[in-house]
């Protein structure tokens, strides 16, 4: 296992992180389906592989994800990093959601109880909240850090402009700063390269990746023919938008590269992410131990420079304005001189 600092913090995290979203049972049976015994096996697998970074959220399986993960890591608590999240609905009450001060303060206490710990290593706001002033959210996050209940803070699924506002506000007020942005990123979902990753790099915020296999699409188990099979996860939980036919074209190339390495499509897809310099850690989850074993092997897979370039070109996102205009007007003489 390889390790890195998360952003500009002193927090050392494994390049692969373990995501426990599948733990427990609930109203999305294609996602929440891992019972305690298999969860124990997979956590042990992750620890044995050198993973020290574990991710969950208060909303996963109505809190079961935190309960199970906390119990399984209790004997190794001080060796491990636990990230959990706040923001999604956790009850029927009007205020049991979002990023208000009320909800954050209560949610921290509830997560600590479910995890069975007295501190959270990384507390992540799970989404934006257009109904709460940004200052209120950031001040509440600063308070839970100052109280010692949270060590570090991060955000997930925020646009670059909002994160930029937040970072400046944190600097101006001397508040606890974001060290992490957890974003969706995959070979067939590279939107964050337009604005988000350049912002994060320039501000020393570490990128962690959720859904590196695009909801399982890049695992290689789906074909053009079996996409509607009710036993498959994507038949009931297909929420990541992408052109499926183009996705299968990408997958054909991924499979070719996998064959050359005696690897799997999932391993190649994760290895491509690990090869990106702006990626700190990639969250891998699984529905069973054999699936996790397969995903863990991505840490040992080294793609060639040519293979990475081929995948980069094949999946390169279309430039947006003003990015394409900026590139078009780069002075060629200066570019050549600085090569």
From TrEMBL:
Transmembrane segments: none annotated. This is Aldo/keto reductase. It comes from the Bacteria. SUPFAM superfamilies: NAD(P)-linked oxidoreductase (SSF51430). GO terms for cellular component: cytosol. It comes from Paenibacillus curdlanolyticus YK9. The keyword Nucleotide-binding does not apply. Residues 15-312 form the NADP-dependent oxidoreductase domain. GO terms for molecular function: oxidoreductase activity. The keyword Oxidoreductase applies. Keywords: Oxidoreductase. Pfam families: Aldo_ket_red.
């Amino acid at each position: 296992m390889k390790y890195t600092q998360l952003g500009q913090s002193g927090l050392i995290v494994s390049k692969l992180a373990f995501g426990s979203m599948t733990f427990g049972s609930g109203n999305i049976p294609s996602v929440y389906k891992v019972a305690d015994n298999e969860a124990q096996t997979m956590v042990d697998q992750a620890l044995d592989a050198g993973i020290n970074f574990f991710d969950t959220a208060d909303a996963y399986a109505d809190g079961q994800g935190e309960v199970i993960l906390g119990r399984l890591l209790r004997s190794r608590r001080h060796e491990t990093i636990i990230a959990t999240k706040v923001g999604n609905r956790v009850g029927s009450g009007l205020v049991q959601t979002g990023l208000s001060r009320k909800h954050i303060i209560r949610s921290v206490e509830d997560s600590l109880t479910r995890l069975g710990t007295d501190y959270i290593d990384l507390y992540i706001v799970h989404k934006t909240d257009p109904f709460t002033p940004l200052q209120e959210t950031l001040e509440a996050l600063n308070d839970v850090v100052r109280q010692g209940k949270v060590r570090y803070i991060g955000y997930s699924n925020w646009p670059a402009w909002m994160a930029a506002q937040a970072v400046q506000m944190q600097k101006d007020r001397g508040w606890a700063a974001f060290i992490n942005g957890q974003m969706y990123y995959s070979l067939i979902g590279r939107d964050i390269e337009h604005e988000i990753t350049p912002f994060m790099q320039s501000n020393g915020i570490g990128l962690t990746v959720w859904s590196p296999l695009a909801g399982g699409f890049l695992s290689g188990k789906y074909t053009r023919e079996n996409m509607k099979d009710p036993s498959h996860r994507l038949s009931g939980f297909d929420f990541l938008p992408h052109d499926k036919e183009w996705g299968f074209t990408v997958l054909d190339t991924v499979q070719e590269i996998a064959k050359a390495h005696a690897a799997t499509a999932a391993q190649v897809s994760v290895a491509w992410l690990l090869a990106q310099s702006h990626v700190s850690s990639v969250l891998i989850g699984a529905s069973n131990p054999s699936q996790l074993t397969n995903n863990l092997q991505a840490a040992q897979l080294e793609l060639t420079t040519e293979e990475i370039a081929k995948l980069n070109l094949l999946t390169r996102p279309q430039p947006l304005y003003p990015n394409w205009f900026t590139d078009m007007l780069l002075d060629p003489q200066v570019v050549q001189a600085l090569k």
